[in-house]
Structures are given as C-alpha cells and as structure tokens.
Amino acid sequence: MALSELYTKYNRVWIPDEEHVWKSAEILRDFKPGDDTLQLQFEDGTMLYSLDTSSPQLPHLRNPDILVGENDLTALSYLHEPAVLHNLKVRFVESKIIYTYCGIILVAVNPYKQLHIYGDAVIHAYSGQNMGDMDPHIFAVAEEAYKQMARNNKNQSIIVSGESGAGKTVSARYAMRYFAMVSKSGSKTHVEDKVLASNPITEAIGNAKTTRNDNSSRFGKYTEISFDRRYQIIGANMRTYLLEKSRVVSQSESERNYHIFYQMCACADQPEFKSLRLCEADEFRYTSMGGETAIEGVDDRKDMEETRRTFSLLGERHRSADVFKVLAGILHLGNVAIRNVGSDRSSISSSDPHIAAFCDLLGVSPDGVTRWLCHRRFVMVAETVVKPVTSKRAVNARDALAKQIYAHLFDCVIQKINAALQVPGKQHSFIGVLDIYGFETFDINSFEQFCINYANEKLQQQFNLHVFKLEQEEYMKEDIPWTLIDFYDNQPVIDLIEAKMGILDLLDEECLFPQGTDQNWLQKLYNYLADNPLFEKPRMSNEAFIIQHFADKVEYQCWGFLEKNRDTLYEELIDTMRTSKVWTDLSFSFRSSLYLLMETLNATTPHYVRCIKPNEEKMPFEYDSKRVVQQLRACGVLETIHISAQSYPSRWTYIEFYSRYSILMSQQELVLTDKKQTCRTVLQRLIQDSNQYKFGRTKIFFRAGQVAYLEKLRLDRLRGACVTIQKHVRGWSHRRTFLRMREAAIILQQYVRGQRRIRKSVTAAALKQGWAAVVIQRYWRGHLTRQIFRMVRSSSIIIQAFTRGWIARKRYKKVLCCMVEVQKALILQKYARAWLARRRFQTLRRLVHNVQLSYRCQQLRKKLEDQVRTPPQKNSTTLTWKRWGGVLLEEVGLVGWSLKEVSDSQVEGLTFKVEHLQNENNQLQKLFQEKMSVNDSIGQEVTRLNQENMVIPELKQTVSELQRHKQELEEQLEEQTRGMTDLKPRGVVVNMIPNMAAQLLFMCVRHADYLNDGAKLKSLMNAIISGVKKVITDHQADFELLSFWLSNMYHMLNCLKQYSGEEEFMKQNSPRQKKNCLQNFDLSEHRQIFSDLAIRIYHQFISVMEKALMPMIVPGMLEHESLQGISSMKPTGFRKRSSSIDYWASMIFRLYSHLPVFVSDPVLSQQAVKQTFFLVGAATLNNILLRKDMCSCRKGMQIRCNISYLEEWLKEKDLVQGTSAMETLKPLCQAAWLLQVNKTTDDDAKEIIEQCSELNTVQKIMYFPCPQGLLQDREGGSSQLMLDTQYRFQVTFPFTPSSQALELLQLPSSLRLGFITRI
C-alpha cells in the first residue's frame, strides 16, 4: 500500500514546531493525490498545512496508540525522529521509566533523582534472564554481555556515551557492579570489591563539577574486567583517554576543579593532613576560580573518607600519602606569586610560603624551581644562553608545570590501581566498559572538543558497521533475501581529520616549527581543505573552521591548538622535577591510544548505552524536547532508526500477528488449523504489494508504515462494528421513542375529538340522561362490585377452610402416624406380654393341678390302706367304693379311670397308677424349674438386646467413618504411589521405608548405650553426622535423597527425644518402649546437632525445589492467559520475548510432585508448601515491578484468576488451614487488585492505603499507575522495591513420638545388611 493512502481522516501526523520541535495534529479530511493542502486540527484549533506542489512532502505520520510507549523503539511502525522523541517522552514523563531499547542500543534518560531500581534484589531478578524478557535496564545489557561471553567464549564491550551530565559514569558504575555481583569468585582476594573500589578514586581525581553536571567525568575510561574459565572475576585493567588537564589551572564560572582538591581542603584540620599546610578551598587560586567551592548535597569530608578507604582496599594506603603530597603541592604552586621586574623580567620571592611548601612536599630544590619558572635556556650553535621571561610567560610555565604534574600523577594512580587489580590467574575472557564523552558542541569549541568529536566519529563508524552486521544476521536467520541498505558512512569525515594532509597531519607539521602559530596552521587548513565539502570557513571569522560531523556542524576556535597539541614543558623544569621521589615519566598519544581502543572494540561484541540529558536545569523527570533531540541526533540513535527503516523495521511473530489481527480474518480463514498459513493468506489478501512484507521462519517482517496500515484496517473494522452497534441501538431507541410519542398523540387526539363531539351533541335532556346514566352505572357497578366482593370473600373463606383443613389433616395424619406407630408397638407389647403371661399361667396351673392330684392320691392311698387293714361288710364296702370312685372321677377326671369294685388286683393297679402319677409330677416339677430358668435367661437376653439396640446407631456411624477413612487412605496411597513413580527414586530408597535408616541408626546407638561404651557411642555419633553431611554435600541437587535424609534426621531427632528417659517425652510411650530408653548416656547435646543438620538439609531441599519451580513461575502466573478474550498482544521489536505458553497444568503437577513425599510428618510438608508459595508470590511480584507491560488492568485480572487456581489446589490437597500459604500471596493479591482499581482521587488513595497494607509506598507509586501526590505524603515505611526471594521462614521440628517397636523392625534382604545381627 502506498504511504500517501494512509493520510485519511482521523489519522494523526507530526508537524514541525519551534517550541516543542514536533507537534501532533489530526487529519480532518482524506488526502488525495494532487491536493496542495492538508486540513489538520491541533488542540488549539484547525489549520491548513500547505504542501509544495512540485514535490509534495507529506508530514510524518503518528504511530497508533497501541505502539506508543513501547520498550523498543524499533517496534514502532513509523520510524522517524518525532516518533522516537514522543515515545521517549511518554515513557519518561508519564510512566517514569528511564530506560528504552532502540535495537541494540539502550537509551538511558537521566532522571536526576535517586531510584529504587538498582538494589541487589533487582540484580538477582535480571540475572539469567533473556534481554527483552523484562523491562529495559542497564542490568539487562550487562547480563546480555555476560551471557554472550559465557556462551560464545567471545570478549564483550559495553560502550557508554553521552554528553556531560547525562549519567555515563553512573551507568558504567552500575554495569561493573552487576558483574561483581553475578560473578562472585569466592576467593580471599576480594577482587570484585577492588574493581568497584576503583570507581571512587578515579571519580575523585578525574571528575569535577561543570555547568551541566555536578559529577562530570573529565576523561575517557575503558575498564577491562577479566574472567577465568569459570567466568569469575580475576582482575581488571583500566585505560584512560584525554584527561582535561586545563581544568587544573582554569575553571569557568560556576565550575570546580577536580573533587580531590576540595576533599583535601575539607579535611585540612585532620592530623593526617596537618603536614600538607592546607587551608580552605577558597584560599587557593586553583580551587576558587569558578567562584563555587561547594556542591549542594555533597559532603566533601565524607567523600574523602570513602576515597581513603578505597585506597586501603586496593592496598595503596601507604602510597596515598605521597599522592596527597603531590596534590597539595599543586595547590601551593598555584598560589605562588610571580611579579614583574621591569618590562621583560619576573621573579618569585624567596620568602613565599607557597613555593617553600611546594618544594618541601615534592622534595625538589626551591632555587631550581624558582629560577626556571622565571628563566628559560636557549641552546645556540656555539653557546647556551639563559634568558629571563616576563611574568605572563612565567605564569604560563607555572600552570604548564601544574598541569603536567597532575597528568603524570593521574597516570601513576591509574597504573597503581591496575597493579592492585591484577591477581594470579590466567585471563580466559574479558568484558570492557567504556565510559567516554559523547559528541560535544559548545559556544566556544577548542582542542578538547575536537579530540572528543574525533573519537566519537570513530565510535560511530564502528557502531554503524555493527548495526549493519546484526541486521544482516537477522535476515539470514529468518531466510529473508538480503538487499543492500543505504546508510550514512562517516568515513569521509574521519579521512578529513586523520588522513594524510588532513587536520591532524597539518597540525603535527605546524608543531614542528619553533615559530609555528595557530594562525599559520589555520591558513594551511584553508588552503589545503577548501575543496572538501565537509570543511568550511566561517564567513565572519578568520580564527575558526567548521567541520560537518555526523551529528551536526561544529565551529572550532583555533586558539591554543598548537600549545595543547605540543603539551610542552620547559626542559629545565622537567630536569628539576625528575629529582622528586613521586615523579614518573609516562606519555600517551591520543591518536595511538584511540587506534588501540578501536582495535580492541572491533575484536569484541559491543553493547551500546546512550545516556541522554533531559533538561539543563537538572529537574527530576522534566523533558526538554529540544535538548533531547540534539542528543539523539548526536549519539547515533536516529541513525539506528534510519538503518532499520530502510529495510523491514516492524517484526511480529506469527502468534502475535494472529492474536492481534484475527478480527480481520474471515470465517473460512479462522477455521484453518495452521495459524502460520492463515497469517500468510490474510496478509496476502490485505496487502497486495508483496514487497511490503516478508515471511520468515518465525516472524513476519514489515516495511515502515505497514503495521500502521493494518492498525488502520483493524480500527476501521472496529469502528464499523461500533457504528453498526450504535446504529441498531439508536434505531431501537428512536423507534421506541417514536412509538411512545405516536401512542401519546393518538390518545390526545382521541380526547380532543371526544371533547368536540361532546360539545356538539350536549343538551339539557342529554345532560339529565347522562347524569341518570351515571347514577345508574354507579349503583350497578357498586352492586356488581359487592357481588364480586362477596363471591371472592366466600371463595377465600372456602379456600381458607379447605386449606386449613388440609393442613390440620396433614398435621393429624402426621400425629396419627406417630400414634399408630406407638399403638402398633403397644399392641406388639400387649400380645407379647399376654403370650408370656399365658405361658406362665399355664405352667403354674399345670403345677397346681399336679400338686392337687398328688395330694389327693396320697389321701386316697391312706384311706385304701386303712380299709384294707379292717375288712368291712360287703354292702358297705360296695357303697364305699362307689362313693370313692365318684370322688376320684370328679377330682381326677383328666386321668379317666374309675373304681367300680374293690379288689386286690385293682388296688395293685391303682398303686401302679399312683406311682406313675408321682413320676409324672416329678417330671412336671423339673419341667417347671427348666421353664423358670428359661424365662430368666429370656429376660436377661431381652435386656441385653435392648442395650445392644441402643448402641447400634453409634456403631453404624463408626462403621461409616471407618469406611470413609479407608477410602481416603486408599486415595492417599494411590496419590503417593503416583508421586513416587513420578519422582523415579533410585537405589535403596525404592526398597526401604522412609524412617528405617533412622530407626536402624538409633538401635546401634541404643546398643552402644547398653554396653556402656562411651568411646563407641561417640565414634558412632560422629560417623553418622559426618556421613550424612558428606552424602548431602555430594548430592546437593538430588531432590529424592535430600527429602529421604530430611525425614530420617527428623525421625532420628524424635527417637533421641522419645527414648531419652525424660518424662516430657515419655508420656505416650508403651511399657516396652519405656524399657528401651537410654540408661547410661545423656545425648541432649547431640539433639541440637541433629536439629542443625536437619535445618541445613531442609534449606538445601527448599533451594532445590525453588530451582525446579523458578522457570515455571513467570510463564504460569504472568504469561499464561487463563482468561480468554482479554489478551492484548504487542510487537516485540528487535527482541523476541519468550513465548507465553500454557505452563499452568505442568506447574500445578510439578508443584505437587516436588512436595516432600518421603517426609512422613505433615508439618514439614506444610512448611515446604508455605515456603514455595512465598517464592511464587515474591518472584511474580518482582517480575511485575520490572516489567511495565505487565502493569495493566487486564493483567491484574489474569493474575487474580491464576491465584484462584492455586487456592483451589490448596483446598484440594487440604493444605489451606495448616500452611498459611495464602497469606504469603497477599502482596501479589494486593498488587493485582491495585492494577484494577481507579487511582485518581483522594478517596482512591485512602482505599489503596487501607487495602494494600502489604505493599510499601515505592511499590505503589513507582511501578503501578498510582498518583504520586496522593500517597507519598501519607505513608512511611520501607523503601525497598523488590521482595527478597531468598527469604526463608523459620523451620520447626515438633516432637512426634512413634509407636513402632524397635525390636520388631524387619530389614529387607535387598538392603544387603547381612553384617548387622539382631541381639
């Protein structure tokens, strides 16, 4: 698509502006080819932007809102100056972010405020991360350099540049601090501390206050940090470039000399400095020329303590006294008074205290110094002439001597620092940190600015070639055809400066002439370089020349070029100073040192940090667009943008493109399973020109403006959808309003028409009839209403009656049901009791009958016997037998026999029957007794059954609980078996129960106690402790082994307590266990040793768990999109962030599998879970704080959803109550809540303070979109930004007695412990 087609309504463009450099405006009307104006609207009104009809140059288009504030400037669709300027402003002013990527460059904007983003926790957070996974940071660049050095075995360089006050020194210092933190050597040399300690010394002797910066580096520094094969620091080496010697003797207004002079003057009253004869800084000429001797907020006395401490750390404490002597001598030399003696002579008073102090401190002859400052020796052909000089030339000689002394002292200190930083060991690789001036241009530019800009030209050339090379590698990796890119090559400028008959060559030539002058050299430049398009002669000046550098045109004044290039000092003074004990003869050539520097940089992989100064007033987070754009042009950022814009600057992965632009896809395209092919199809349909994009292996490459075009199509589609929705909603609303209005109009019309008809047809008779009709209607309606009321009331009463009857019957039936059940029970009881009563009655009646029969039989026998003894008469006898027979028939009717006549045979028969009846009576009595005993046993059995029936409900409940417990145990056993399978234990762990080792070891201890062998017991205990320590040391990362020995050491500790014989530990012991207690030795001291060993194993165990879980935390908690439909994918520019894949299921599973499955006590498992959840919360929150793209309402919703998954997992494992794990996630929960709430009003601030009690003010204000003014005055507390992921909760080992009988312990044969015998 042509770029001109994007100038449509609602799009925005950038218009040049004098005050803000660029100003945004919205297009009001579509631009068509041939139009000579572009109708725009600014915030303050509309305007017509005129175009050149001959070659219309349309204004720069503004990027879509989705791309504004990107981490990487190369991710912008439109790559041009206003886009870069605006993106930096949004991040710096609105988001308070000082770092931004621009391809391989890290742009650092000086905040002029102390930020909480450089702590040790932040260093650990960036350690091991890929560049682009987190927010831009100097630590990310340092980590990338360190990682590439370790991965590719290639030396690295970090090039930090920028103008004075931009923050170069601080950035370089933080980079070196990062290397010192992540590569701790562990040796006793503390070389990391020495590397960091070199910074205060070099800043003291090489930094000074300027009008732009209170701590400006006045020299270039390349620090080469050496690493061994384990990539640990073993030393460092420092090279310096172009020290500003002129500052020693001359400072501009509001500037200071080097810091070290003011530090010494501030400590003049200390005993160590009494011999230096120092006084206040404003009393020395060299420290008072700028007018200011103090810096606001800087304590020179305290800084001197730090400087001296670092001298001691570097092992140069004894040499620091000599350094201070030389520095004090320079101050005294500046106060030496040189007066005129006539018109061509000068002299120094022999009583001048300053010349005496200078000579005394440096150990030189006062006469020699005094003489050769005021005289000069000329060597002629035939003789040598000593000639006096004027006071002006003498002052120049004095200042030249001071500058030379300071320069040599500076070199000497750097040499001593390098010697102190060298330790034994072979260098395997190194990382260099270059802290050098950026491109400089002032109102008056001299030799120093010329050298600085020359060095930046060389660095810029190296930078352009490196960027070009990286672009080529990226294209080759993605299999995209490489086309030659046209970019600015500054080789002609470099040739202008350093080629034969160039500026430097002509300068060296002029310096060879004794009578050479700056004017002669300038005239040579005019003559030889007039035809060069990059060299110009100013129109209004004959004492300057102009060079067109890559950044800007710079006008240089030729004054002092020859003198500064010669860097001359009279030979006589040099000979005099050679006698000093602190003098060293060192000399460096800037051109040769620059060549060596470039050779070093070209042999390394460079990483670039460009420091930007946002304003001249040093106001925190104030953004001056004019100053920033000057530096962007000078530091090569815009050149990077230019190179990227020439090819395919916008780069999206297929997943990002599919997620963002699926709204532009048709239904047929959405159903395709191959998302990569879907992206190809959609893009070919949307953009017809295939040259506007290229398909790589993993990314889609777009030319400038194409992403904006896709955003326009997406916005148009969304706008069309919104218009459609609005159309239907508004149509529905208007239809509803119309129908209501029409209905109201119809009603009004009806009433109006009715009134008209009434007025036409109304008469007196009609009124009477109408009134009568109304009365009739009233009574009739009243009658109908009363009838209806009565009917309704009657119906209601009937319904109520039936309802109440139904309710009563229901209640009655319910009561009756209960009564029927009671009645049934009573009937059952009645029949049961009746049956029992009848049985008792029948038994008693039978007994009574038997007794009566027996008694009567006895009486009858007696009578018969009496009658037999006295024989009666026949008639009487017959009557008597008849009477007795009737009696017997009456009394003994059941027997069925009768007596008709009495005879001997009959008596015998009766006797037999009587005996038979007696026998039967006896049997009946026995039967009665048996029945009585049966009745008693039945009663007892009934009582027992009643009691058992009362216990049955409790037994049923117990049985159900046992069944449920059995089911839970089976589930736990199955889960533990699955966990054991997943952990894949090896060796003896498979074949032994978790605590067998502890029990076996304790039995050996018990045997030694039984034998009362103290030496054997001590040897055994030492062997156990040392053996366990050796095992866990040799297997520090073996999760299963650590958990096994943690369990056994904990059980060993419990055994030592349980069998110690102390009453508090024996309460739950069985009698047999009490007999097995230790009898002869007290092992309470060893309990503490085993406790410490268990704590050590626990911490090591937690560290292994954290190492396993840490890679899953960020993908699972932050990058996993558990809520579909709210993702907001953005392009990642030059870098590709790690893909957000679905780690959640694996995270939950591995979290559970990494629990201590070998630990039998649940208390340890709960503590491990709590510690793990704290790690999850802390790591997630720290990552949010370091990734601004995560601070959104949508991400807050995702985080809260993922936290709910963790809570559900805890509930599933029944770990909510015992672990307090959710308490550790409170800071993360509050952070997620804070991302979702409003943060604008004072009430919002109060709510935030109440709800976010776990977050400190720094976390609320700096990294969450929170109102600074509302919170910073309300809260105090900690200013720590990051949570400490290394924090450990205190572990406890509660006493848990074991019911295991030691004598019943069985040893599996697979253990092969045949040497152990049971006693």
TrEMBL record:
Top-level taxonomic group: Eukaryota
Coiled coil start-end: 907-979
UniProt-annotated stretches for the region Actin-binding: 594-616
Pfam families: DIL, IQ, Myosin_head
A GO BP annotation: actin filament organization
Every Myosin motor domain range: 68-715
SMART domains according to UniProt: DIL, IQ, MYSc
Keywords attached to this entry: Actin-binding, ATP-binding, Coiled coil, Motor protein, Myosin, Nucleotide-binding, Repeat
Family annotation (PANTHER family): MYOSIN, UNCONVENTIONAL MYOSIN-VC
Protein name per Swiss-Prot or TrEMBL: Myosin VC
Organism: Oncorhynchus kisutch
